Amino acid sequence: MRKDRFYIRDMEKKIIDEPYLVHKIRNVLRKREGQYIFLFDGKGAEYKALISKSGPQRIELKRIELIKKLTPIFRLSLGFSLLKSKRSDFVFQKATELGVSEFIPLVYKNTVVRKLTSAKLEHFKRIIVESASQSGRLFIPEIRELSEFSGVIKRIKSWDVSLVALPHSSFSVRDLLKTNLLDRGKNILLLVGSEGGFSSQELEELRALDNVYFVNLSIFTLRAETASIFLVGLVSSLLNRNEG
Predict the structure, then answer these.
(1) Location of each CATH 3.40.1280.10 domain in the chain
(2) What residue ranges of the chain are covered by domains with CATH 2.40.240.20?
(3) How far does CA 22 lie from the centroid of its chain?
């Protein structure tokens, strides 16, 4: 049975005052004073709390009780290019549901969307919170600052293994399933190119690095958002993440 849970940044305040949350709890779910609701802090903890006072602007809580506290087993980072229209929304939503720990928006040579405004960042954060709440996750993924591809190259050693989605690579999903690549560490980077794919120079830089592996996800040509979701879902399933 699906359990409605709500993300609260500061549990010590014992107040819910974000308009859309107040509306959902009061008017959609019709929760009233004296009833319990479930909360999570985005850092692995889930709570049960009693509604002590409910008004149109805010909901006050008491008897906040810790139900469980989890520690992430793996850290899964997704480096990808922001996409036009609502396609980026889809990536943030579905990758959150599938277990991504960190989003790294990148600017490749062929990237079309090269700006991330504060308004757009808040929009993406809202999508992530809603997706985590709906999917039952207790962790809220981070969104890193928009950065050049070269920045990831400089940091590549901070990940134990890096997987790059690359069409026509000789290393297939079937090969990945047969290997123990994901047993080499708990910190995994997934890289997906832009709409125009990786440039030849970017591929050369990646091929020169250790612990970077290219994987062909399909015999068909996948859109950037499809490749992102497929790769995240595949690796997350193989890692057998247990976040509750």
Answers:
(1) 75-239
(2) 5-69
(3) 25
The confidence band for 113, taking pLDDT boundaries of 50, 70 and 90, is: very high
- Measure the CA–CA gap between 37 and 48, rounded to whole angstroms: 6
Q: Is-contact 162 211, C-beta < 8 A?
A: yes
Q: Which two tokens stand for residue 154?
A: 């400089």
What distance in Å separates the CA atoms of residue 221 and residue 235, rounded to the nearest whole number?
20
Radius of gyration of the chain (CA): 20
Percent of the chain beyond pLDDT 90? 80
E strand or H helix that includes residue 95: helix 87-98
> Residue holding tokens 């992530």?
128
1-10, 48-57, 223-232: segment of lowest average pLDDT:
1-10
CATH, domain 5-69, list 2.40.50.140, 2.40.240.20, 3.40.50.150, 3.30.360.10: 2.40.240.20
Q: Is the pLDDT of residue 129 over 50?
A: yes
Query: CATH assignment of 75-239?
Result: 3.40.1280.10
∠ CA 65-130-127, rounded to 5°? 145
